[in-house]
Amino acid sequence: MLVFLALAYLVIKRLVHSPFGRAMIALRENETLAVSVGISVTKYLVLAAVFSGALAGLAGSLYAHYIQIIDPMVFMFLNTVTMVIMVVTGGKGTLAGPVVGGPHLRHRTGDPAQLRRTRGSVDPLRSADDRHRFRSARRHRSRDRALVQPCLQCRAEERALLGSPDRERLTAMSVQIKTSDPILTVEHVAVHFGGLVAISDMNFEVHEGELVSLIGPNGAGKTTAFNVITGFQRPTKGHVTFRGTSLNGLKPHQVTALGLVRTFQRTSVFDKISVFENVLIGLHRRTAASLFGTLLSLPKERRAEEALREEAWEILRLVGIEHEADELGGSLPYGDQRLLGVALALAASPHALLLDEPVSGMNASETARFIELLDKLRAKGTTILLVEHDMPMVMGISDRVVVLNYGRIIANGPPSAIQSDPDVIKAYLGGGIKHA
After folding, report:
1. What are phi and psi of 207, to 5 degrees?
2. What is the pTM of this model?
C-alpha cells in the first residue's frame, strides 16, 4: 500500500504541475474564463473522471485484499465522510494534505471539538510547496531585474517612441490596411431573448491591424455582440466570419483556437492561483504535451514546460506585472487585475483581441499605462476590437468607431466624424446637436 501510495502521489504531482492539471484547476476555479483561453470543458472533465476513477479502483482493490472480502455493503457512508475529513484536516487544495490528514485524524478522533477547530495541518506545507515551485521562477526574475536596471534610459526612449510620432505612424499604417480584406465580419446579426430584442441588425467589419472601438449607451448590446462573436451566445439570425471561417455554432474554446480571444467586462482572473500560473493557464493553446509523456516526465515534456514558463515571463514583462508573479490573482490591486486579464488573453495567441471595457474603474494613471500597452500591441500588428465608455481614450486611440444603439449600428467611421454625428450625439445626450 505504501508503494502504491508513493506511486499515486508522484503521478498526481506530475499531472497537477502540467498543462493537463492546470486545465482541470482552471475549470474548477472559473469555467467561463477557462474556456475563453481555449480549454475544452468536456475533454478535461472526462480526463478528471478517468483519473479519479482509476485511483478509486486501485484503492478498492487494495481495500478488498485488506479486509479479504468483496461486499458493496462494507463500504459505508462513514468511509466517505472520513475521507472528506482527512482532506479538510490535512489541507484542502494541497498534494500532501490527504496523506498527512489520515494519521492526523487518528490522533484527533478523541476530541471532535478540536477536530472541528482545525484549519488544515498542511497549511505550512502549502507555502513550502509554493516556494519550491517558484524557486526557478525567482531565479529568472532576479536575472531579469539585473538586466533591466541598466536599461532605464532604454525604457524612457521606448516610451518616447510610443508617443505621438508613433501614433501617427500606426494611424498611417492602419489606413493602408483598410484596403485589405476584413479579418472579422459581422453580417445582419440579431439576438432575441424571447420578446426582448438585444440586437436587431448589426453589420460591421474589422480589418487586420486595425483598432476599432464599439461604443454605445448602456444597454445598447455591446457585450451581447462580444458574446455572439466569441461563441458564448448563439445569434437568432445572421453570420459571424473570422479569417474566412464561419463562427456560427462553434463553442467558445473552438473560437479561441482560431485566434479570436476576448476579455470580460467584469474583472475575471483565477483568484486562488498565482499570477504566474494564471498566465501558464492562458498558454494552454501553445502546448503540445502528451499525457503519457507528462506522467513519465520525459525530457521532451520537461523542455516544453520550461519553454512555456519562459513565454509566461515574456508576457508578464510585456504587460508590466512581472514583479507580482508570486501573488495570488485575487489579491492584486484592481488595475493590475485588469492587466492580468489582458495577459491571460495575450497568452492564448490572439490574431484578434476583443477587449470589453478594459479601463472601467481605472484611475488616470492606470488608464495611461493601459494605453501604452495598447500601443505596444498595435506595434506588433495585433488587431483589436474595443468596447469602452472612456470617450477621450476611444477618440484618441481608435482608427475607426462603430456606434451601436438599441441593437442597431447608427454610425461607423473615423473618430472625428463620429464626434459630430447628429445621431450619435442624440443617442448619448438627447435633443440633437442644438441641445447638446
Report:
1. -95, 155
2. 0.78
Burial of 365 (0-12, 13-18, 19+ CB in 10 A): exposed
Residue 417 and residue 59: Cα distance in Å, rounded? 70
The secondary structure of 375-422 as a DSSP string is HHHHHTT-EEEEE-S-HHHHHHH-SEEEEEETTEEEEEE-HHHHHT-H
Q: What are phi and psi of 104, to 5 degrees?
A: -60, -40
Among residues 253, 245, 247, the alpha carbon closest in space to that of 234 is found at: 247
Element (H, E) at 214: strand 211-215
Distance CA 70, CA 58 (A): 14
The set of residues, in sequence order, having a beta carbon less than 8 Å from that of 335 and lying 6+ positions away, is 362, 363, 366, 369
Alpha carbon 43 to its chain's center = 18
Please give the Cα distance from 197 to 220 (Å, whole number): 10
Q: What distance in Å separates the CA atoms of residue 370 and residue 340, rounded to the nearest whole number?
A: 11
In angstroms, the CA 341 to CA 30 distance is 13
Grid cell of 49 as nine digits = 473522471
Q: How many CA atoms lie within 13 A of 205 on its CB side?
A: 11
Give the HSE-up count for residue 429: Cα atoms under 13 Å, Cβ half-sphere.
Answer: 13
Chain segment 308-367, per-residue pLDDT in tens: 999 999 999 999 999 999 999 999 998 899 999 999 999 998 999 999 999 888 888 889
| Helix (H), strand (E) at residue 154 | helix 152-161
More confident residue, 409 or 108: 409
